[in-house]
Amino acid sequence: MTSFSWTAVALLVFAGNCFAAVDQNKLATIVKDMLEKYDPTKQMFSMAVSIPVKKNTEQDYDIDQVFTTENGNKVKEKILSGGVYKEGRIVAAKVIPRKENKKQYIHAEFRVLENFDTLLNNNYYDHDLLLFYVFGSPCYHKCTNEADKENILTKLRMIQKWKHYAFVFTRPFESKNPQMSTTPDQRREALKKLADVSGGANQKLGLENIFRCFASNNQMQCISCSTNGEVADACV
Predict the structure, then answer these.
(1) What share of the chain in percent tops pLDDT 70?
(2) β-bridge mates for residue 166, sequence order
(3) Residue 206's Cα: distance from chain center in Å?
(4) 135 to each of 24, 50, 132, how far by Cα in Å?
C-alpha cells in the first residue's frame, strides 16, 4: 500500500490572528499532496487535521509534524475498511452505506464530527491550525438541513475552538440520486449556512474561512468562497 506521507515543506503562513490571510498557494500545496496520496475519485472521504505550530515560529504550521509513513498507512487502511481513524491529531472517515438500507448513506463529514472529541480532548486548539477537509461540499438536503438528525451545522461549531481554521472542499456537491440533486442556488444556500454557524461569543465560521481547492491545468489551486461577502460562483 502506498504511503500517505505529506511533503516535508508544507507550511501555512498567517498574518496576525486572521485566518483569511492564509497563503492560498501553500494551502494548495498541502491539498494537492493529500489528494495525490489518497484518490478521492474512488472514495468520498473527509478528514480533520490539527496542525501544530512549527518549532521556533509563532505563525507557521507544519503538516510534516502530523503525518509519517507509518501512521499514513494506518489512516488509509482504516478509512478504506469503513472505520473511523481517530488517533493523535487526525480524524478521518469515508462515506458508508447504512446497514439497514444500502441505498442510504452516512456522510463522511458527519462521521468525522461524531468523533471530533479525539481532537478536542487533547487541547490542540490553543496553538494549532484546524484543517477540515471534505471532498464534496456539504449537501443541501442533509448536511446543512437543520431538520435532518445527521446535519453537521451544530457539531461544526467545535472547529471554532481553534484560533485558526479552514473548511476546504474540492467539488460542489452533486448526487446521482434525483432526490438529492441540487441547483446552484441550493448549493449557495448550503455554503451560507456553513458560514453562518456560530461558535463562542456568536462568532461565525465565516465565508472567508471556506475554500474550494481543485486541480486546473494540472495544478492545484485554492480559491476563497467569499466574494465581497457573498458566496463565490466558483464554489457552487
Answers:
(1) 82
(2) 131
(3) 14
(4) 18, 18, 10
The full set of domain ranges for the chain reads: 11-235
Q: Is the pLDDT of residue 20 over 70?
A: no
Strand pairing category for 230-231 and 226-227: antiparallel
Partnered with residue 47 across adjacent β-strands are 92, 133
Alpha helices in 81-182 (DSSP H): 108-114, 117-120, 153-156
Residue with cell 472521504: 45
Here the cell at position 210 is: 471556506
- The reported pTM is 0.86
DSSP 21: G
Distance CA 164, CA 52 (A): 11
- In tens, the pLDDT along 113-144 reads 999 999 999 888 888 888 899 999 999 999 99
Phi and psi at residue 155, in whole multiples of 5°?
A: -70, -25
6 neighbors 63 (Cβ within 8 angstroms): yes
Kindly tell me if the per-residue pLDDT of 150 is higher than 90: yes
The β-bridge partners of 129 are 51, 164
